[in-house]
Design goal:
Elements (H helix, E strand, L loop, with lengths): L1 H9 L4 H20 L5 H17 L14 H16 L6 H27 L7 E5 L3 E9 L8 E4 L5 E4 L3 H10 L3 E8 L12 E12 L2 E3 L8 E6 L9 E5 L3 E8 L5 E8 L5 E7 L10 E5 L12 E4 L9 E9 L3 H4 L4 E16 L4 E3 L3 E3 L7 E6 L4 E8 L2 E4 L15 H30 L2 E3 L9 E9 L11 E7 L2 E2 L3 E3 L12 E8 L6 E8 L8 E10 L4 E11 L9 E5 L3 H4 L2 H15 L2 H7 L8 H22 L20 H22 L1 H4 L27 H18 L9 H5 L3 H18 L3 H4 L8 H25 L7 H26 L8 E3 L3 H8 L6 H26 L3 H37 L8 H16 L28 H32 L5 H12 L12 H13 L12 E13 L15 H4 L30 E2 L1 H4 L4 E2 L4 E2 L3 E5 L4 H13 L7 E12 L4 E11 L5 E11 L7 H29 L7 H36 L8 H27 L5 H12 L1 H26 L9 H12 L5 H7 L1 H36 L7 H13 L18 H18 L1
Parallel strand pairs: 22-27
Antiparallel strand pairs: 1-2, 2-5, 3-4, 4-8, 5-6, 6-7, 6-20, 8-19, 9-16, 10-15, 10-21, 11-14, 11-16, 12-13, 12-15, 16-17, 16-20, 18-19, 23-27, 23-29, 24-25, 24-26, 24-28, 28-31, 29-30, 30-32, 33-37, 33-38, 34-37, 35-36, 38-39, 39-40
Helix pairs in contact: 1-2, 1-3, 2-4, 3-4, 3-5, 4-5, 8-12, 8-22, 10-23, 11-12, 12-13, 12-22, 12-23, 13-23, 15-17, 15-19, 17-20, 19-20, 25-31, 25-33, 25-39, 27-30, 31-32, 32-33, 34-38, 35-36, 35-38, 37-38, 38-40
Length: about 1500
Amino acid sequence: MDEIAGNFSKAFHGSQAHNKLQKACEILQKLTAFIPGFSESVQVNSLIYLNERLLKSPFQNNSTLDFKIPVAVCLFHSLNVVKADKASRPRCKHDIEHVENIMKMSLLALRESQEALLQQNQFSESSVTLTSSIATLMLSSSQNISTLPLSSYTLGYPAPVRLAFPSALALEELLNKHPGVNVQITGLAFNPFKDFDDRNIVGSIGRVLLSSNHKSLQVHNLMEDIEIMLWRNASMETHPTSLNMSTGHFTVTVNITSLEKSLIVSIEPENPLSMTLYLGFQHQPNHTYFHLNITLPKDQVWQKDEEYTWVLNPERLQYGIGTYYITAVLNTSKERAQQASTLFSIITAVTQCYFWDSHNGTWRSSGCQVGPQSTVWRTQCLCNHLTYFGSDFFIVPRTVNVEDTIELFLRVTNNPVGVSLLASLLGFYMLILVWARRKDQADMQKVKVTVLADNDPSSQFHYLIQVSTGYRRKASTTAKVIITLYGSEGRSEPHHLWDSQKAVFERGGLDVFLLSTQSSLGELHSLRLWHDNSGVSPSWYVSQVIVSDMAGKRKWHFLCNCWLAMDLGDCERDQVFITVSKKELFSFRQLFSSMIVEKFTQDYLWLSVATRHPWNQFTRVQRLTCCMTLLLCNMVINVMFWQINGTTARRDEQVGPFAVTWSELLISIQAAVILFPINLVIGQLFPLIQPQEPLPLLPPIQAACPSDVSFEPLSLTKVVEELKETVGFLLRRNIYLLSECEPSSWSSYNINQLVTLLSSLIYSHLEGQGCHQQTGPCWANVIPENHHHFCCYLLRVVQRLQSHLCTLGPTQVDQPTDFLDAASELQKLQEFLETHMLPTEQEPSREATSFPILSPEGGKKSTSNGLPRWLTYICWLFLGVTNLATAYFTALYTLELNKDQATSWVISLILSVLQNVFIIQPVKVIFFTLLFSLILNRIPWFAKEKEQQTMRILALSAKCSSSLPGSRDKKNPIYVAPSINSPVTRPEGTLKEKKLFKLTGDTLVQIAFLILLMTTVYSAQNSSRFYLHQALLKSFSHRFSEIKLLKHFYPWASHTLLPNLYGHYRGFITDGNAFLLGNVLLRQIRTPGAKVFPIGMFPQEQVKTSHQDLEDTENYGVNWQPLEANSTKADSIWHYQNQETLGGYPIQGEFATYSGGGYVVRLGRNSTTAIRVLQHLEQSHWLDRFTRSLFVEFVVFNANVNLFCVVTLILESSSVGAVFASVRLDTLTSFQTSKDFAWSVISQVLYYLLVCYYGFIQGHRLKQQRWRFFTKKKNVLDMSIILISFVILGLDMKLISLHKKNMAQHHCDRDRFINFYEAIKVNSAVIHLMGFLVLLATLQLWNLLHHNPRLQIIHRTLSKAWDEVVSFLLVILILLTGYAIAFNLLFGWSIYDYRTFFSSVVAFVGFLIGISNHKEIIALDPILGSLLILTSVILMLLVIINLFVSAILMSFGKERKSLKTEASLIDILLQRLSNLLGIQQHQNTCSGPKSGASPKPKSNQANSQMLSRLISRH
């Protein structure tokens, strides 16, 4: 400030002083923007100081008086900071007073500077104007009774304000008391009281102040009003309505909601024309019936834009709140009426004048009114007092009734985007409509109940079977499917599920069959499904089977969710399923997993057009029309919210790397949010009004009569088949019993063996129900009710078999003994089953497995009439009208846009549609799926769709005739269940396909993970770090390494450090780009004086004692004298300050680790202070022979690259008396938003979401596998990546906290040195962890390629040659250590590379790989150096390393011989990728023929020799 003021006092009119003052203010603005804590009060105080220096400066003669002083920029900028700073605080009266005080201080400083300028002004003009980027101020002095009345003052950009005083009669009393009046007019381009009042004050804020003798004059209740004209921003959005009219009149409807506001009607014709406006209240006026009228254009106006503007103040709007109609009638001649139509635009708005009431802290309007010269762009306020003035402005929604709106479409060629888009959508809709109609007609053929062709016409009991096929890939089947039902009273015959008129078991399909039996099966407990594995795609994924007993009015659910296939799932095409209870059926896991797919395919509106289920009554045509309605609603909402003037003006403000502006994104989000309830209503419109099917009359419930055991006698062959079928059923019911039974037992035809096997299986089933942990997981969910029915079935089977055997007798078999044994075993089984069933029958209550076909609520509703069918036509009419209306208004709105605006609107529309398709619809589906899964079992109403579908199936089944003649070929092999094999081994091709599919998915996921990781890592890095390092290193390290003694530090600091540290602009270093943050710190570590050369210790041993523990911590007086000699302050440069006081941390130097404390000197914030401090240090010998190390520490911030840099210059004194210099530069990124900030945040959020998902998966595996989890390398690698990612996240949070802490310390004390060492260490840890994380992620990607046999060779080679490798590595380590010690001892005293043992090791390894420094060694000692170099080359390169490589090559050759010739998964994957891309790839086998295997050892030997020669030559 002193320097700027001095330069200003030399020559104010010179450009140099003006530029320096401008630079000072710019620095102050940058500090305010960069440092939030640089508060407005501190800023204004600094500027008042600058103002005082300015007033003391003598002024030279000026050639102009209307100059601009940059101090105003700083002062008004501080007021803008007040507005931004208060936005985040609660509103209180203290804050309002604080803002007013700051403004008073700023304006007072400006007024004093203006008065000083006026006093020294030698010209006749008596006014001075100060301007800035956000404010304008005019000061006019010595106004009296003759000059002030009827005078006017105008302020220009950036806050245009015009002030006009009234006549002398109104000001006579004031001017008589104060003959000389100073007028101060302030125009502000922002509202400083925005956060203390909710009124929408727009445009300029004007303040008028009259003063006399440095005292403010209170002006109020004048007889005449003072005129204040306040302009609005030219870029303000007005949203005009364009009209192309040929009828000669139109009507505008305006709704007035306030009694205090004035209405402005502005008309902008394309060509000058005359018209008359008529005003009416709640009716349309005409030339004979109206309340007010006016003829435009006006004759006498102040500016041209008033010609077609009509201002209606509250007095003219005498009817108050309500609807007003304004009719415009063109005053044209007959000749002109025959010309083309007239084009013009209309704007209606309301405005009001306000003043700031400082006592109540609010904007008020009393004493102010809107004047007749107000327009859309400015407001004329007429007030009887002086203070702060402002005005609001609001575009009133209006409707325009134009009789010939068709004329508006004549301009479609100017901007055809909207109309063309609508026409394209209409054509696209018609094309898809034809396809959807055909698909609906085809789906109608699939909605039927199929009566099985192999039903017995005489059967009396009927079962409806609903089979649901899953949505898995290749879930449909072409095989012939057979079903068998098992109940407590018996089983049904195997039935073939097929339909001759339609395809069955399609993906996601529902097939309904009617199966008939001779007798009732009782309570079902099991169901058996198999197929014959025929057709092109026999694999079948069955989701669920529901069996309904038409006679008993009960139904059972069988949850399958498995593959019946030979190459998928469990590789079984024959399986048995058991019924489920209500608890399992309505469990959250079951409901969510089953409903999520159904909801996505049926309720996801956009997707369901293609995936609609045939049984769903919400047709594709209806869905397509709803999608079209949503799209048109989206278009009209987007174009209504589109900001015509403000959107395309900032196309450079893009979101990350995408060419999408923030305004386009925000408008799309607004439209998507508004569209969400419309989406819910339209999506449920047709499903809610679907007519209900009338419930057919079901037959009365028949009691299930037990089947008679005295059947018609069967032959022995039939008995054996019955035994084999029962055994097969039991084995399929518990597949884990296959491993316990011999295959010969169930394939035998010996009746005794079959009965014995049956007995063992029954015992296993009945005992396993009580101890399912030993039998298998299939018993884990066995329900007592199901088990009871299963036992009843087994009892019936055993009784029937025993009856047949008794009928046959032992004479009809070859071995009567086996027959008698079988009969005896069956008798025991019967007794065991009867005994086992007694406890279960005596249980008071069991969980039921059967459900009523229809719920009681559904049965009651079905008896009443459903909704009338004509509601469907109402819905169609509603959608049609909505589509026409939205399309019409969309076309009208888009015709008002130009092509650039229409293009931006299309981008916003596309974003909104994408949000609706990919965000809103999936979120809606997932939300409702979660909701229904939680409350479906509690609120049956939500299962209404299922009830309606069941009623529809029952209605269709009632129309079917079950007495149709059927044909059943009992000899058809499809009715024979597949033979039971040993535990299935999956086909090799299937396993390879699964592995290939899994490998492809893992590879793609890992690549996506790696891309997100790379994006996250590199978005957090700054590529300018290197250049900032180089710039600072070049500035401060010049000749620094030449310092050999401590006394040389002072000349270097005077000639290099200070000139580069303090630049021409205060606060910045010399380059003018980096800001010096805080103070510059000189800190020295001293050695205790008594321990420098103690008695009995040689100087060479001093190095050993130079450590942090031997640091001098005593306090001294001036010149390092004892403390008693002089008294110094606690923070003196002669007092020791520990690292806790300084906030420092230990620093690692070249020779030792130094603490963060020491004796500290602060150089100051400017060069003058720094030079004086250095001179004082040199004169007082602050650096002496006891100084162990000296640190020069400071922090700079470069706002251009958003980087902090902590510079540490270190001088370390050694025992020999020399000083060694080193420089450390550590960078840290500032946490400020940048252009790519949004993309960086998005990538990090996506990355950590993926990491959380991986963490959940790994946690689940860890819970299952326990300690075995850590035995797999892949699991350890994944857990390492997850843990490191979360550690990095925690360190980032810590880094943000440290950054805020450091900046808070700096704001608290700006002369304090802020130590960023902890933040630097955390940032360094983050960078190192990120590098290690990228390495692990890359290794994880490489780990996915372990299926490639070529890569497996490397692993096997190293495994086989591990012993030789370890031996050679040990020999190499011994030789390396020996030579490193030798070179260190012989040449460490003169060659820098061999100064220590570790550096000698590094130099020797470099020598072996070709980084040679042999010339220095030979020059130092030709004989011994040459001998060491020669022996090392011979031993290390020619012998040991060659043998090492040869051992690896020999193992590699052996493993290469055993390489299989079959293609690996990687080869198959690459081949398929090449075929997909159309690339021809040669098929090369992994290994050659056997004949070519013999020369390989020679080839390996040749390779070894060649490699040896290359190494030796090197």
